[in-house]
């Protein structure tokens, strides 16, 4: 059984001789071949070279073609901001700027960057597809709806649900068509990546997501490909609802307890993937830190229906030695790294918090992975910016990206359990949830009144 067969057997909830592993390499591949993230995401040859380099260094059982949740959005007219070290981020929302759904068309193989991505996919399948499983990553319909409409979607889910159902019907067609295009290039697994679904309640998931995402998984199965539902953030409350959508696999990040998710998923005959910590371990830890963490995860996950992976796209500057150390643990070849005595990059960082009670403004600490690369983080920052309009003289806010080690130390000191989180005067208030602008504004105004500002 080669790596590809091993992973696919595990994907279908089978028992295997060792835990398969998939490093979700996107912009990190750019760093491996010495180009910027923007150059990488716009060039099929770079995407192919990055995948080959990741294959060579990290001995994976599967790899994504790339990791970019903005491809569909860009093809639909969303403006993107490109970065040297992050995936692009969505900077405009056509449906919030006057366009109607009827003005938009479902992207084809000729639109946006799809020609680049699909050409790279065909070449990666050709070069690596007989040895490892290749993933095609598709933006899920709810996250795509957020890209098109912005945070207004949360109001309309309550006040104008028929409009959101109409939008979700449209986004379902786009996600399904993207899946079709990837399948036609020969990939083995379609991962529907819908991180924004972690930000809504189970009832909202069942009303606005399940009816639209379930047929996509049915279609993928009809095409005889494996499917995964990939969600970031604290999706704990929605795991069972996700299982009912009938993907073959659910992939989670560090905000979800692996034991809990495994128990729920296996009850439904669904495999589970995850959930190596991206920053604390992979980005800032030592090779030994990474070995210890993945050995623990593999013990929890077991050899039946579990795929070891990071919880999201690997950060650009993640040390390759840390990822190689993970591979060494997977293959039981850790001797090279066990000899090393390296200091954790988070040690000895001391963060001094403000004296919130006596500050002359309300202080908002917004703890994110990175709003430039994480959709839930982006929309929580947008909510903060909108909520403080007109009261900026009484409110001070800052985003702390835990891709920066000082921000991780701040997160620990503030006792923030999950991201994204909005802390108000040092208290985590909105934990892994995006509040409506109206609710957030009322909360801030209440604190302003309590402080007598």
Textual characterization of the structure:
This protein has 453 residues and is an alpha/beta fold. The chain has two domains: 3-338, TIM Barrel (Alpha-Beta Barrel), CATH 3.20.20; 356-451, Glutaredoxin, CATH 3.40.30.10. It is built from 20 helices and 13 strands. The chain has helices at 3-11, 27-33, 37-41, 44-58, 71-75, 114-128, 141-149, 152-159, 161-185, 202-208, 210-222, 239-243, 258-267, 278-283, 287-301, 320-330, 335-338, 375-387, 405-413, 437-451; strands at residues 62-64, 80-81, 89-90, 133-139, 189-193, 226-230, 249-251, 271-276, 306-310, 362-368, 395-401, 421-424, 427-431. The protein has a seven-stranded parallel beta sheet, with helices on both faces. Helix 12 links the parallel strand 6 (226-230) and strand 7. Helix 9 packs parallel to helix 11 (210-222), helix 15 packs parallel to helix 16 and helix 18 (375-387) packs across helix 20. The longest helix has 25 residues, at 161-185. The radius of gyration is 21 Å and the shape is globular. The termini are far apart.
Number of helical segments?
Answer: 20
Structural class: alpha/beta
As a percent range, the share of helical residues equals 40-55%
Please give the CATH architecture of the largest domain: Alpha-Beta Barrel
Given as residue ranges, the uncertain stretches (5+ residues, pLDDT < 50) are: none
What order do the strands of the largest sheet run in, or round the barrel if closed? 1-4-5-6-7-8-9
What is the alpha-carbon Rg in Å? Answer: 21 Å
Q: Strand share of the residues?
A: 5-15%
User: Could you tell me the number of beta strands?
Assistant: 13
Please report the first level of CATH classification, the CATH class of the largest domain. Answer: Alpha Beta
Round the mean pLDDT to the nearest integer and report it. 94
Structural domain count: 2
* Distance N to C terminus: 67 Å
């Amino acid at each position: 059984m080669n790596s590809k067969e091993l992973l696919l057997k595990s994907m279908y909830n089978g028992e295997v001789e060792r835990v398969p592993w998939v490093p979700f390499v996107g912009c990190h591949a750019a760093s491996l071949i010495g180009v910027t993230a923007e150059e990488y995401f716009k060039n099929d040859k770079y995407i192919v070279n990055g995948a080959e380099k990741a294959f060579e260094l990290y001995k994976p059982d599967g790899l994504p073609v790339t990791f970019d949740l903005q491809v569909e959005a860009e093809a639909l007219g969303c403006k993107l901001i490109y970065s040297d070290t992050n995936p692009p981020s969505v900077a405009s929302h056509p449906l919030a700027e006057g366009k109607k759904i009827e003005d938009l068309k479902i992207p084809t193989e000729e639109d946006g960057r799809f020609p680049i991505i699909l050409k790279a996919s065909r070449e990666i399948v050709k070069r690596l597809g007989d040895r490892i499983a290749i993933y095609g990553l598709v933006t899920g319909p709810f996250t795509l709806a957020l890209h098109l409409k912005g945070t207004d979607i949360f109001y309309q889910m309550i006040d104008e649900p028929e409009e959101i159902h109409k939008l979700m019907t449209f986004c379902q067609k786009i996600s399904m068509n993207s899946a079709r295009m990837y399948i036609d290039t020969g990939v083995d697994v379609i991962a529907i990546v819908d991180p924004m679904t972690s930000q809504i309640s189970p009832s909202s998931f069942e009303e606005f997501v399940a009816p639209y995402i379930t047929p996509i998984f049915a279609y993928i199965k009809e095409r005889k490909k494996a499917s995964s539902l990939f969600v970031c953030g604290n999706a704990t409350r929605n795991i069972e609802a996700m299982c009912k959508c009938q993907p073959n696999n659910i992939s989670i990040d560090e905000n979800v307890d692996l034991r809990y998710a495994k128990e729920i998923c296996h009850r439904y005959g669904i495999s589970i993937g995850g959930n190596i910590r991206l920053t604390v371990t992979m980005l800032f830890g030592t090779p030994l830190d990474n070995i210890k963490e993945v050995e623990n995860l593999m013990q929890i996950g077991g050899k039946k229906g579990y795929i070891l992976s990071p919880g999201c796209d690997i950060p650009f500057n993640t040390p390759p030695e840390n990822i190689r150390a993970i591979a060494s643990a997977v293959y039981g070849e850790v001797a090279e790294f066990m000899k090393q005595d390296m200091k954790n990059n988070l040690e000895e960082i001391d963060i001094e918090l403000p004296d919130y009670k006596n500050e002359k403004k309300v202080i908002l600490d917004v703890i994110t992975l990175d709003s430039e690369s994480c959709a839930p983080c982006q929309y929580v920052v947008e909510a903060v910016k909108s909520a403080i309009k007109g009261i900026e003289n009484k409110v001070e806010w800052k985003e702390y990206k835990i891709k920066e080690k000082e921000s991780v130390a701040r997160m620990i000191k503030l006792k923030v359990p999950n991201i994204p989180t909005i802390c108000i005067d040092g208290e985590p208030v909105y934990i892994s949830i995006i509040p409506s602008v109206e609710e957030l504004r009322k909360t801030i105004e209440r604190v302003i009144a309590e402080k007598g500002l």
